[in-house]
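Running this now, will post back.
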Amino acid sequence: MSSYTPAPPSNFGGLSEEHSQYENSRAVIFPVPLERTTTYEHGTRNGPAAILAASGNMELYDEELRIETYRKIGIHTLPPIDTMNGTLENVLAELREAQRELLDDGKFPVALGGEHSLTPPLVTATARKFKNLSVLQIDAHADLRDEYQGNPASHASAMRRVVEVCPAVQVGIRSLSVEEAKAIPHLRTKIYWAKDIVRAPLNNWIAKVVKDLSPNVYLTIDLDGFDPSLVPATGTPEPGGLDWHQVISLVRAVARHKKIVGMDVVELLPQPGDHASDFLAAKLIYKCLGYIFCKR
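Update: finished.
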């Protein structure tokens, strides 16, 4: 039947089959609507769907790189993983295994969250594949509690679990507990506090962040790392955050000097009438893929 024009696909970017088949795609979008430990506003389970919907409305030409990124790399979108059935421990184990399979297939995984507790199993799988791995976290919160409300797999403990696997560099941090403040000197992490960088020239701190990272980098971006004037749609917005150009300048520099081997974007909490936050998340992912694969 061909009497009408079908709607665009619901995959990332609304891409045609030619540019979104798994076999021919270097990047794979992995929706993870995980929401099991959130403690304030709820709704991060809706984040992946909102990002995918917004991505279908992006212009796919990158004016900076002067290319259509998707044509160079191919971007496949997986179905969302079921995160509601079974224990959280089992869900995290499934995430770890799925990440391992993607990496073994030579894919670049991009997980869409969901809450930040999805990051440690993804990092664990990535560290088994890539030696000399470190994690670059862009976030408002340190997420370094050993446990929160009795749960060591809480979103508030995500980076504490990560630094048990590999070192981290944390950028934009401006919220933490006294427990975390006391633990930081003893943990494998370097923190670039928001108060020290948001008004500083980019060349004063980005080169230092790059130098602190190992040759292989896993990138995790909590959207509350951005100032809430740009991204209000998060569960725990914190004032005093980073802006768009600071974040993409950092990712561009890391992609130029290191090998980014996987990433996630987490903690979008879609709000009625606020399409800007959803769109920023989608555009950020596409921009990162351009920097990672299409460096000039």
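The two ends are 43 Å apart (CA to CA). More later if anyone needs it.
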